[in-house]
Input
Amino acid sequence: MRLTRSQALFETACKVIPGGVNSPVRAFRSVGGTPPFLVRGEGAYLEDVDGNRYIDYVGSWGPMLFGHADPDVVQAVQEAATRSLSFGAPTEIEVRLAELICALVPSIEMVRLVNSGTEATMSAVRLARAYTGRSKIIKFEGHYHGHADFFLIAAGSGALTLGQPNSPGVTPAAAQDTLLARFNDLAHVTQLVEAYADEIAAIILEPVAGNMGCVPPEPGFLEGVRALCDRYGIVLIFDEVMTGFRVARGGAQERYGVRPDLTTLGKIIGGGLPVGAYGGRREIMEWVAPQGPVYQAGTLSGNPLAMHAGYAVLRKIADTPDLYDRLEAFGAALEEGVRANLKALGLELYFTRVGAMATLFFTGERVVDYETARRCDTQRFARYFHAMLEEGIYLPPSQFEAFFFSTAHGERELERTLSAQRRALMRAFS
Ligand code: PLP
Output
């Protein structure tokens, strides 16, 4: 595989952009090598500047539920673009998108649209603090909620990959109100809550962790956290930026039957354009300005292109009754094939999947939290990653990321992926 033009671009990029990228994990630091510079995406496929083609399992880190350049989404954006790129004033499409979000996720009675997942989680925490009159929050080790200062403590994803869970620049004051809990360890969460009962405004978590690899909640864990929040008057925030509309039509909260007070969304609701959202119980959301006192704003919030893209995606989600059955069928077939490959090669690696997100962990142990995720053999993963890339399979360049698939992934892609995987695993373990 030739990456000549990508290499040249990356060298230039490194001179003018820190690390050559606009988001750390894209630089391939944890797997080494040069990231392909992409020019085109169509359905399940990507093409780079050197003309290499890949089957995509990153999906822009989640948004591409219907694959790249979905004609309905592209048309909606093109039409909107001819009428102005931005107004900074109310538009009908914002109302329609908000209505659809509330209809698809019943715990969301009111919603505020923002420009990224980071903005959504940051604003949700501010709101929870104002509403409860308390300062502390509990977050979980290995969970990532964007890059606001008070979240950059044992965060997953790029922070995990880089081995820099605590970023310089985050002041002790910003960190002191964040308490850390172990995912899937209800006894630990209970201890923390009891120790700081009157000071905790919110518990925020990824209901299915995706930023230390895909780690599902253990049975009863989410219910247990919900009960603790009820008992101590704590706002429960589900960060569904990744899981929203991916693991079920109504997100992880529908899949596991646990209702949070607030939910944060992103990725899929923008269809590939920058959108985030936070919403939930009316009584809490009414605290948001200008209805209430909690300030939060954005020049480009509700941007018409982003709203039209998001609406086109959610409309398809709402109007395709068998959508999640189709994703589940592909996921189940992929899972079966991966397990067959592992068995044929005599490898004991831990594979997790929830709906249309999954991870192959390079460890034989069950992964249930940050500690167990960290035991993976990341060097072996790097070899596997590069072997897959050479086979034309584009995976997230980190062991600690979930991979995603879309409705554009079908029989052909499945077969190619599985046979490539057999060879890649052989090379990684040779
Ligand atoms: N929350 C979760 C669960 C995420 O996965 C991410 C991004 O990957 C974020 C929040 C931050 O979203 P954004 O990158 O849009 O700021």
Notes: The chain has two domains: 4-69+321-428, 71-319.
